[in-house]
């Protein structure tokens, strides 16, 4: 079902209660415009991953709606979700590569949503177009020289670059990133964020990125949304957010803001 919603992502009064009765999201509403980069912050258990799962279609909200470029996700059958899903590029904390396969093969898998079967994305059968595209994506993340290496023989930072190349292979319009640098050391994490952000800026992609590093969020995102106990308690341009507001998000009113 199409709506007249014009933003890339539109979350309207979303509540999510798990079968055991835990309410992880309570009446959440926000929208993300095309090309906008939003960082989703909040302490452990505030509902970030549940939001990510609802945005990506892995979980359905108990009530409320999520529109992706105007299409209500809840209205889609499994089959009709596929073309919509193709627009969503995902980056995860633990990379989700197939580790006993080559870097090149992992990047080819990113094209899966463009085909009806797995065959056209298997290296021995892939078209020259797909093969060239995979090498271009690897080149963009600086890893073309490692195309033939097994993915488990890369550093964490390199594995995340492969995951980004795989996402590029998909040609997404919206990027959902779930703690993309949480498994990396500070230097590798910063380099991966710089790469990811260069790519989303050059392709004008819309981004929702879950982060725990507030400095990184301030430096990279256009806007910061803060969750607390499943509710939005902060929705502010990153350029104008104060250290006190971030402190408040993580430590609540019981703690005096360290930088206020
Ligand atoms: N499958 C589930 N079944 C029941 N409760 C769940 C489930 N998944 C998450 N929860 C609960 O929902 C709440 C929000 O969890 P969620 O994982 O979304 O938070 P989070 O902000 O991503 O936390 P973290 O930063 O630790 O990943 C928590 O109370 C959690 O225990």
UniProtKB/TrEMBL annotation:
Domain of life (superkingdom)? Bacteria
Entry GO terms, CC: membrane
CDD domains in the record: ABC_PhnC_transporter
Recorded hits in Pfam families, A to Z, give: ABC_tran
Which keywords does this chain's UniProt record carry? ATP-binding, Cell membrane, Membrane, Nucleotide-binding, Phosphonate transport, Translocase, Transport
The record's listing under PROSITE patterns reads: ABC_TRANSPORTER_1, ABC_TRANSPORTER_2
SMART domains attached here?
Answer: AAA
Q: Which GO terms describe its molecular function?
A: ABC-type phosphonate transporter activity; ATP binding; ATP hydrolysis activity
Which residues does the UniProt record annotate as the domain ABC transporter? 9-254
Output this protein's name.
Phosphonate ABC transporter ATP-binding protein
């Amino acid at each position: 079902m199409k709506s007249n919603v014009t933003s890339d992502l539109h979350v309207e009064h979303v509540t999510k209660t798990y079968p055991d009765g835990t309410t992880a999201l309570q009446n959440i509403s926000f929208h993300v415009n095309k090309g906008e980069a939003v960082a989703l912050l909040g302490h452990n258990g505030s509902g970030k991953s549940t939001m990510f799962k609802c945005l990506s279609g892995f979980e359905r909200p108990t009530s409320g709606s999520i529109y992706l470029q105007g299409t209500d996700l809840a209205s889609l059958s499994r089959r009709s979700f596929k073309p919509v899903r193709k627009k969503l590029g995902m980056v995860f904390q633990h990379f989700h590569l197939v580790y006993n396969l080559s870097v090149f093969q992992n990047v080819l898998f990113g094209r899966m949503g463009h085909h009806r079967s797995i065959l056209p994305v298997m290296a021995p059968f892939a078209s020259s177009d797909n093969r060239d595209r995979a090498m271009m994506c690897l080149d963009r993340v600086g890893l073309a020289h490692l195309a033939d290496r097994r993915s488990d023989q890369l550093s964490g930072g390199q594995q995340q670059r492969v995951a980004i190349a795989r996402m590029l292979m998909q040609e997404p319009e919206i990027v959902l990133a779930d703690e993309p640098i949480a498994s990396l050391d500070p230097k590798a994490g910063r380099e991966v964020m710089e790469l990811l952000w260069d790519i989303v800026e050059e392709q004008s992609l819309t981004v929702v990125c879950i982060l725990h590093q507030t400095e990184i969020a301030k430096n990279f995102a256009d806007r910061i949304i803060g969750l607390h106990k499943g509710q939005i308690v902060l929705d502010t341009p990153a350029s104008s957010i104060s250290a006190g507001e971030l402190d408040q998000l993580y430590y609540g009113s019981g703690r005096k803001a360290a930088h206020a």
